[in-house]
Design goal:
single chain, alpha/beta, D-Maltodextrin-Binding Protein, domain 2, 2 domains, ten-stranded mixed beta sheet, 11 helices
Length: about 325
Amino acid sequence: MHPRIPALRRLVLSAAFGLAATGALAQAALAQGAAQVGDLKIIAPAAPGGGWDQTARSMQQALVTAGLARSVQVVNVPGAGGTIGLSQLVNANKGDAGVLMVNGYVMVGAILTNKAPVGLDSVTPIARLTAETEAIAVPAASPLKTIADLVAAIKANPAKVTFAGGSAGGTDHIAAALLVQASGADPTKINYIPFSGGGEALAAVIGGKVTAGISGFGEFEGQVKAGKLRVLAFTGPARVPGVDAPTLKEAGIPMEVVNWRSVVAPPGLSAEQTKALVDLVEKMAQSPAWQEILKQKGWEDAFLPGAAFAAFLKSDIARTREVLLSVGLIKP
């Protein structure tokens, strides 16, 4: 595991990355681990504007800029915490080394919460890519000035405090439930409003339609810099430079959540096909183009390839089940 991403309450969002080769030559080149593949397809299993969409389009940019792919197409397949896109990947693309999908911790939670018929045990893990702290933010005009103010409101009446975030059961939802629990209130009373895309959730927060929003900081950053949002706290182990907001632990709230994003492929791939995809994504992750994107987005490089990522994913699914049980989002 990446040394900066430890235990039970670390969560990370992901990206689906698809290679849809347009013919036998592209498939052969990929199978042989060629330096460049042909036409690629990246599936982002969410609406435009959110973390998975941003990751998919960042991969598109890096792959082409680094000369690893001739052209890259991004396709959005939103819904149900990414599980609609997951079902499509597993059921329609078995054995196809030309298709990949971006995903992450949100999908882990959504599968467990929604009792999805298709799980991540059905995919071929390729690599974990990034890590990102979650931010808890309010509109600039909100009367809540600090995280202590939000905690006080939660203690007074958790049902009156509304949170906007990503899909039900995902990273944002779990972070909100853990915050309610850490505030001494009943996490089953949480009033959480899920959105299928980060853009929709952001609009709800800015428009004052909810008390607070929870998301990866990258999705809030532009509006924070524009003065439209105020960050109350970060859920990760460290503050974000340039933003005057503490971590939850600094504020005396004993919880930590980090979002991760990753790349998976369909089931039924050969060992050679899997290795070629892992090698391709690793070359992308090491490229100057990708490293520059990480810097611009404020994403932490959490690269973990192939078998190591598969082991991390298996353990994180088990840990996530424990968290969801502890806050009442799933039943035993």
